[in-house]
Amino acid sequence: MNAVKRREIFRRFAAANPHPTTELEYASVFELLVAVVLSAQATDKSVNLATRELYKHANTPQAILKLTQAGLEPYIQRIGLYKSKAKHLIATCEILLTQHAGEVPRARDALEKLPGVGRKTANVILNTAFGEPVMAVDTHIFRVANRIPLAPGKTVLEVERKLMKAIPRDYLLDAHHWLILHGRYTCRARKPDCPHCLIADLCEYPQKTAG
User: Fold this and answer.
1) Helix locations, 77-117, DSSP H
2) Exposed e or buried b for every residue in 49-88, given b needs 16+ CB within 10 A?
3) Contact, 186 vs 196, CB < 8 A?
4) In whole angstroms, how far apart are CA 9 and each of 79, 180, 191?
5) What are 177-207's pLDDT values in tens digits?
6) Cα Rg of the chain, angstroms
7) Cβ contacts of residue 154 below 8 Å, gap of 6+?
8) What's the whole-number average pLDDT of the chain?
9) Does the annotation count 120 as an active-site position?
């Protein structure tokens, strides 16, 4: 895919949705961190249902630590892998309080040292909370990048690095959200909605679906 097509793709995304953001609900950087950790292998909808109740009772590292793992688990048991996620969140709260004065760090290396936080989660925090032009590649973005193909690659890291080079710099800050939403609602895994796709004429996917 050439640079002219890539720029036009993101121009259209920007025109259709000038201020994209995550569908996870949060009111602080810490709440976003908790939600993103919980969202691994889970839907944003299920995470929001859990955190709406959790955040009424505990939405700071101190409050969640006070719950203990046993007290946290009932709030998030609707979410897959909730026991390991509860364990990670308790350990993360301890680290935030002892090493970061209770604040979520802005540095990638510090974020990735938090239990349950990998490169993708760190990128989400850096992009969504701190406004850094980085790319968090989830299953939706990985699929879209290979299918269109905007930035084909065999691994998540390869796709991330290619996207960072392929996406015009002035669109990079919001590209993560545009691509996730596009993959979630239009360029779906089983049957992409090509007839209603904003960029169908630019996409080079050879097996487009008919109306």
Assistant:
1) 82-99, 108-112
2) ebbeebbeebbbbeebbebeeeebbebbeebeebeebbbb
3) yes
4) 34, 14, 20
5) 999 999 999 999 999 999 999 999 999 999 9
6) 18
7) none
8) 96
9) yes
Is 54 within 8 Å of 37 (Cβ atoms)?
no
What is the Cα–Cα distance from 35 to 25, expressed in whole angstroms?
Answer: 8
Q: Is 138 a catalytic residue?
A: yes
Q: Which of 45, 85, 138, 174 is catalytic?
A: 138
Q: Looking at residue 50, what is its pLDDT?
A: 97
For residue 66, pLDDT beyond 80? yes
CA distance 149 to 138: 16
- At 41, the pLDDT band (50, 70, 90 cuts) reads confident
Summarize the confidence of residues 10-16 as an average pLDDT. Answer: 98
Ramachandran category for residue 167: left, alpha or beta (phi over 0 → left; psi -120 to 50 → alpha):
beta
What is the Cα–Cα distance from 82 to 9, expressed in whole angstroms?
A: 38
Confidence of residue 126 (pLDDT cuts 50, 70, 90): very high
The active-site residue out of 66, 85, 120, 201 is 120
Separation CA 116–CA 193 (nearest Å):
34
User: Quick check: 85 and 40 in contact, CB under 8 A?
Assistant: yes
| Mean pLDDT calculated for residue range 27-53 | 96
| Distance of alpha carbon 158 from alpha carbon 98, whole angstroms | 35
CA distances from 183 to 30, 129, 168, 180 (A): 26, 22, 19, 5
pLDDT at residue number 57: 96
